[in-house]
């Protein structure tokens, strides 16, 4: 090549200038993470030198692509805007997609009609892939995605046999560490407020609670377990139930910071001091934990990094059309504050 071009530069010319294969150029343009930094820099330099502009319409038509990803949250908008977890996930996803050509389409599914409409949307292949947040075990969407061979990544999973790609946190280990911390501080009547039991994440955190209690030589006591729903009102309701059953409770592990905030409000109403009378631990280490009074000890899960990783895994599946599913579990960490 002599550096002079007649007409529009081609993908092949970019590959020659960069000293890489045509497929590598395509992966860089499509935002695939499976390209070395050196190759990516060479391709980007060649694109700049040649003035190459991808023909998006032709590329989409040839590859049956839409350059769009659906972010699906099957929860009411009251939860979406009230809970920091969702905003952190969205922030991470958006950051990972920022340097790609992908458009992110936020979809809330609250009714059977909305679910049916979205299923039709997927069947028409209006998006290249799906990110699904807040997974319930009876949700038919993951199975539909598999049937359609649609690239998809779940935030969490439906069970330990999940067949769809997912990014999760170590919920069992995090909960176990939280309860072990309460017990190590001398608390002996430690209760838990769970999430909805149709969610694997909630069952994992309950398993972690039970493992810690068993490891301490304490017997299982169902009166110390109250079901919540990951909302503040659910935390309030569950805390009232626990106090009615077992007034001597001296420690509580809430499976989310939002429910811990609800529990804290009830404890205050009942004249119970935190941590003097009742120690309290949450899960997520959200802004809510840091701004509670007293500041809440909580299990930190890397929520924003979970969002980034979900987007990264999905981009790989879209670019490579790989049949191998990826299962990623990120570590958690107990952050100690004044509520214990």
Estimated helix fraction: 40-55%
Give the end-to-end Cα distance, rounded to a whole number of Å. 69 Å
Relative strand content: 15-25%
Main beta-sheet strand count, sense and barrel state = 6 strands, parallel
DSSP E strands, number: 12
User: Can you tell me the overall shape?
Assistant: elongated
Overview of the structural elements:
The protein has 14 helices and twelve strands. It is an alpha/beta fold and 340 residues long. Helix 11 (232-245) packs across helix 12.
Summarize the structure.
This protein has 14 helices and twelve strands. It is α/β, with parallel strands linked by helices and 340 residues long.
Keywords:
single chain; 340 residues; alpha/beta; six-stranded mixed beta sheet; 14 helices; 12 strands; 16% strand; transcription; transcription regulation; HTH_LacI; LacI family transcriptional regulator
What secondary-structure arrangement, pairings included, does this model have?
Elements lengths: L10 H8 L3 H9 L6 H14 L5 H7 L5 E6 L3 H6 L1 H14 L5 E6 L3 H12 L5 E5 L7 H7 L4 E4 L9 E5 L1 H14 L5 E5 L5 H16 L9 E3 L4 H14 L5 E4 L2 H13 L9 E6 L2 H5 L5 E4 L2 H18 L6 E4 L2 E3 L5
Parallel strand pairs: 1-2, 1-3, 3-4, 4-5, 5-11, 6-7, 6-8, 8-9, 9-10
Antiparallel strand pairs: 10-12
Helix pairs in contact: 1-2, 1-3, 6-14, 9-10, 11-12
């Amino acid at each position: 090549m002599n550096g002079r071009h007649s007409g529009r530069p081609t993908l092949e010319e970019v590959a020659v200038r960069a000293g890489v294969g045509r497929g590598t150029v395509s992966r860089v343009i499509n935002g695939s993470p499976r390209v070395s930094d050196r190759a990516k820099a060479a391709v980007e330099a060649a694109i700049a030198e040649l003035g190459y502009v991808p023909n998006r319409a032709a590329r989409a038509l040839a590859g049956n692509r839409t350059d769009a990803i659906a972010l699906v949250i099957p929860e009411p908008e009251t939860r979406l805007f009230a809970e920091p977890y969702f905003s952190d996930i969205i922030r991470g996803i958006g950051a990972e997609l920022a340097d790609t050509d992908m458009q992110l389409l936020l979809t809330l599914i609250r009714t059977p009609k909305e679910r049916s409409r979205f299923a039709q949307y997927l069947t028409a292949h209006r998006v290249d892939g799906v990110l699904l947040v807040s997974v319930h075990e009876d949700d038919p969407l993951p199975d539909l995605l598999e049937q359609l061979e649609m690239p998809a990544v779940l935030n969490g999973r439906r069970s330990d046999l999940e067949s769809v790609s997912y990014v999760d946190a170590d919920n069992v280990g995090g909960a176990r560490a939280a309860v072990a911390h309460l017990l190590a501080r001398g608390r002996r009547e430690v209760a838990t407020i769970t999430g909805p039991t149709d969610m694997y994440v909630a069952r994992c955190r309950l398993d972690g609670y039970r493992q810690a209690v068993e490891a301490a030589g304490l017997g299982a006591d169902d009166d110390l377990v109250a079901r919540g729903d990951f909302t503040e009102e659910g935390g309030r309701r569950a805390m009232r139930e626990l106090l009615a059953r077992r007034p001597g409770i001296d420690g509580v592990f809430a499976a989310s910071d939002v429910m811990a905030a609800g529990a804290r409000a009830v404890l205050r109403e009942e004249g119970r001091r935190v941590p003097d009378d009742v120690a309290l631990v949450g899960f997520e280490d959200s802004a809510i934990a840091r701004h509670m009074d007293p500041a809440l000890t909580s299990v930190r899960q890397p929520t924003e990094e979970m969002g980034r990783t979900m987007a990264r895994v999905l981009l790989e599946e879209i670019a490579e059309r790989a049949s191998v599913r990826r299962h990623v579990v990120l570590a958690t960490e107990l952050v100690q504050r004044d509520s214990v």
